[in-house]
Design a protein that fits this description.
By secondary structure, the chain is mainly α. It is built from three helices and no strands.
Length: about 80
Amino acid sequence: MGSDNRKLWRDREGISQLLVAAFAPTVEVLLDRERAVENESQFETIADRLADEFATYFPSHPPVLSDYGISRAGIYEERL
């Protein structure tokens, strides 16, 4: 038990460090008052640009899931 707890603690520390490193630049930008969005129009422009860029990573006509496919019964079908 002691060895497993130490391993888990190291993993927690590593994950924590990874998350801090991953999110720190984003948080810095969000807190940077000089880069703040000044008006709704500017926000819409940035949001549209991000949505367009995001869309480039996916096919233009992605497959559609059926109602059953997204239902609780469909999701847990294999486990029942």
